Amino acid sequence: MMMKEKEFLGRDLFQRGKEIAATQEHLGQEYLCEDGKAQIDIFLSDKSELFNPLTVGQQRDLSPSVYQLIDEKMYTISLKDPVRLCFLGKIPDIQEQEAVKEMLQRHYMYLVHDKTEDLRINRLKTICLALFGTLLLAIYFAIEMTASRPVFVEVVSIAGCFSIWEAVDTWLLERKKLKVDYLCAVQAVLCEVVFTGNIDN
After folding, report:
1. What is the four-CA torsion angle of 82, 87, 92, 97, rounded to 10 degrees?
2. pTM for the whole structure
3. Phi, psi of 52, rounded to the nearest 5 degrees
């Protein structure tokens, strides 16, 4: 009975996995336009929605909700597709449109820099863990036959194996997410920004 239940659960999980993959592909396709670009529409019912009211002067920036929307949509779009950000509704004048483009560039260039640094730290962390684990395992094999304290030897062995495992986990799992974040930020930096609608005076 247990075997049949496991087989059923396995088939069910496999089927759901296929459905999720198909759904993700469909979600990405719905953004594609005829020119091959993936378009993210940002509707502004009021120009005041565009800028963060707490920022002024040279520190003026876009509303956090604008960045949040872009980031959420970016993760849905394939990394191979060029992106276009299309602001709709009541849009700002030409001068502010250029300011918006500069703010987007600045924000995502900072993000690219941060993710590049995160990847560098991840690589350094992986190397250190791997070297430390290898050193501990080398010590373990060197003193295993002559050690008078078997408990200490086992602790060294466990610590070495744990360090190696953490290095693998850091490289394969943590780095994968950091790489996706980095590529999404690069994709955002390279995106086209257009404004379609009525200029709000």
Report:
1. 0
2. 0.75
3. -75, 115
